[in-house]
Amino acid sequence: MHSIYARVNGISALWSTCVMVLLGAVALSSFLFNANPKGDLDIVSLKVFHSKTRRYPFRNEEIGFVKFNLSADFTPLFNWNTKQLFVYLEAEYTSAQGVNNTVVVWDRIVRRKEDATIDIVQKDKYRLRDLSGSFSNVLPAQYSLKYNVMPYVGVLSYGEAARTAEPIDFPDARDSVS
Questions:
Q1: Are 129 and 48 in contact (CB under 8 A)?
Q2: Would you call 126 helix, strand, or coil by DSSP?
Q3: Distance between CA 13 and CA 16 in Å, rounded?
Q4: pTM (2 d.p.)
Q5: In angstroms, how far is CA 51 from the centroid of its own chain?
Q6: For residue range 20-48, what is the model confidence (pLDDT) as tens digits?
Q7: Is the dihedral angle over the CA atoms 118, 145, 91, 166 positive or is it negative?
Q8: Under a CB-based contact definition with an 8 Å cutoff, are residues 142 and 167 in contact?
């Protein structure tokens, strides 16, 4: 005869095995959904200004401001295993020292399918700053709209919805913000 502890152990082992098999099936079934959202991205303006650093007020740096038009439909990415989307606009450029930089300019978390259609005209949420403090002799920047699908169970997936047709040059720095 089995004790009560052995019976509870057997039932909980069976239950946890069934739950793990179900979660594995959910994670594997997410690979069947293959959505490829597309969008439009247009950089309206890019301005660079001289500024003082926050931490060191005696030091100067250049700050870039980006204005953009963005429209994309991310509703095909939502299925029963999608918890949320992380959508972001990034700028990729090579600095004067030859270092490749990727900077997030704007981002948004989309939690519902009803909010997955994005159509905005906006300025940057985060400003462009280079570690060298200057955008002179920097190669043109390529802007792209990317997303990250966060499922309830399974692997994170990444993708790109839009990209600028050609790289955009950094203008010369101005003295005042206008």
A1: no
A2: coil
A3: 5
A4: 0.83
A5: 27
A6: 998 888 778 777 777 889 999 999 988 88
A7: negative
A8: yes
